[in-house]
């Protein structure tokens, strides 16, 4: 089975069980051990997956790391686990101590939902402060899963992981710096951009003005790029839906598609709905379809599984929800897009019924 599909199934398990998981030990048994098993390691073989492995640190005896993973009789991974409610980033100092006395090249800090992978890229045998790879079951990314494959039992490759780790580390650092520039452009970036088209001296007042211009320009550029990509995705979804509807004879073949206009408000509302639904299901299971009458949000790109509809084509805006399980939903008037968050429970109820 595909690694991504296995991780998505584990996420569904986490969502369904987490409210009943009250201890760190239960988190390990219910969530972390299945994750290790997904990587191909035998969790019932104590020579391959070693629980409570002793990592004595100086004069401190009896220190134990939750799991050590061995591949070809060599330790490759250490796991330190926390309760699913805890922040996976908050305990790396403890993993740092274990890593120092371990022979493994990689350490994992996890709360069962987020898995942070660390290495020693900066200094040999000293764990880096920041992870080079994060696997978030609620937000799985294809490029991260590709690197995770190198950790599986059958495909483990130290060289491949280290090459990817270094690249990921610097890509993440560059992204962080770029996001800082978007939020608050520095003098250096403003000068770099403005000097290409503005041949007058950059006085203090002009610098203040151009900083604000740069911030707006960067934000607009990114928003327009996102909007274009989303519209392209919606266009693809619409074509897929159209093919399904032709097979089931549920759509008027003479509908004039040229009259369908996807507005910025509809796209923004869809992002809000998507953020709410991601608490329940992976983002790739949330699809959208714009029609002349409404903008629909669907489960698994299936027009027979409507989650909600946005009616924004009139003076008043409405959110139509389907938590009652009927084909016709209940419309709620929206004074602002932020009010969509008020219907979080109804949207979750609808998804729960569709998943049954």
From TrEMBL:
Upper taxonomic lineage: Bacteria, Pseudomonadati, Bacteroidota, Sphingobacteriia, Sphingobacteriales
An example Gene Ontology biological process: DNA restriction-modification system
InterPro entries xref list: Restrct_endonuc_type1_HsdR_N, UCP035009_HsdR_All3000-type
Superkingdom of the source species: Bacteria
MF (Gene Ontology): ATP binding; DNA binding; type I site-specific deoxyribonuclease activity
Organism expressing this protein natively: Pedobacter cryoconitis
Domain Restriction endonuclease type I HsdR N-terminal as annotated: residue spans: 60-125
Protein name, as recorded: Restriction endonuclease type I HsdR N-terminal domain-containing protein
């Amino acid at each position: 089975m595909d690694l991504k599909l296995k991780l998505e199934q584990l996420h569904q398990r986490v969502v369904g069980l987490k409210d009943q998981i009250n201890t760190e030990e239960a988190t390990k048994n219910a969530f972390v051990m299945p994750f290790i098993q997904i990587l191909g390691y035998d969790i019932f073989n104590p020579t391959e997956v070693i629980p409570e492995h002793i990592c004595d640190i100086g004069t401190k005896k009896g220190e134990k790391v939750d799991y050590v993973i061995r591949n070809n009789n060599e330790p490759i991974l250490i796991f330190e686990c926390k309760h699913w409610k805890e922040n996976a980033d908050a305990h790396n100092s403890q993993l740092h101590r274990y890593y120092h006395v371990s022979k493994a090249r990689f350490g994992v800090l996890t709360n069962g939902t987020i898995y942070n992978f660390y290495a020693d890229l900066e200094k040999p045998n000293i764990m880096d402060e920041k992870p080079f790879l994060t696997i978030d079951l609620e937000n799985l990314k294809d490029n991260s899963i590709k690197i995770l494959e190198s950790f599986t039992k059958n495909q483990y490759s130290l060289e491949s992981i280290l090459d990817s780790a270094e690249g990921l580390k610097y890509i993440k650092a560059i992204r962080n710096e770029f996001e800082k520039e978007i939020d608050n452009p520095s003098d250096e970036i403003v000068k770099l951009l403005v000097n290409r088209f503005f041949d007058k001296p950059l006085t203090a007042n002009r610098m203040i003005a151009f900083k604000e211009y740069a911030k707006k320009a960067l934000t607009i550029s990114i928003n327009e790029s996102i909007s274009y990509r989303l519209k392209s995705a919606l266009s693809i979804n619409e074509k897929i839906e159209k093919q399904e509807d032709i097979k089931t004879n549920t759509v008027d073949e003479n509908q004039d598609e040229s009259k369908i206009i996807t507005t910025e408000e509809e796209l923004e509302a869809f992002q809000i709905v998507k953020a709410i639904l991601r608490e329940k299901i992976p983002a790739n299971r949330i699809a959208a379809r714009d029609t002349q009458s409404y903008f629909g949000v669907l489960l698994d790109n299936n027009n027979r599984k409507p989650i909600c509809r946005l009616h924004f084509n009139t003076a008043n805006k409405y959110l139509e929800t389907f938590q009652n399980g009927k084909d016709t939903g209940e419309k709620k008037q929206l004074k602002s897009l932020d009010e969509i968050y008020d219907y979080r429970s109804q949207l979750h109820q609808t998804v729960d019924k569709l998943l049954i």
